[in-house]
Amino acid sequence: MFGLVVRFTCKDDASADAFDQLVSETIEGIRQHEPGTLVYASHRVDGQPLQRIFYELYADRAAFDAHEEQEHTRRFLAARDDLLSSVEVDWLELHTGKGTTP
């Protein structure tokens, strides 16, 4: 499996609302067209109204690469920068756990 955690900080409340809408549209495309995307979850952070955290888990690196090539993902990547003040990415290597298996 292949995964990552991403912390997004939106510029302001209006940007956060627009980001949430963009994410909802993107996740719909992921649900419909990405069988190799096992988990793609967007979280709000309690007490931090401008922050969002994504948890993404893919069957393998090829599934992630396929995700990056999708039209809905390219649209998200192109539109998000105007809404954000920062992006932090942590790439994950599974050590142990319980949950979705490929």
From TrEMBL:
Family annotation (SUPFAM superfamilies): Dimeric alpha+beta barrel
Q: Which domain of life is it from?
A: Bacteria
Q: Which PROSITE patterns match?
A: ABM (PS51725)
For the ABM domain, which residue ranges apply?
A: 2-94
Concerning Pfam families, the annotation shows: ABM (PF03992)
Matching InterPro entries, A to Z? ABM_dom, Dimeric_a/b-barrel
Its name, as the record gives it, is: ABM domain-containing protein
Q: Which organism is it from?
A: Acrocarpospora pleiomorpha
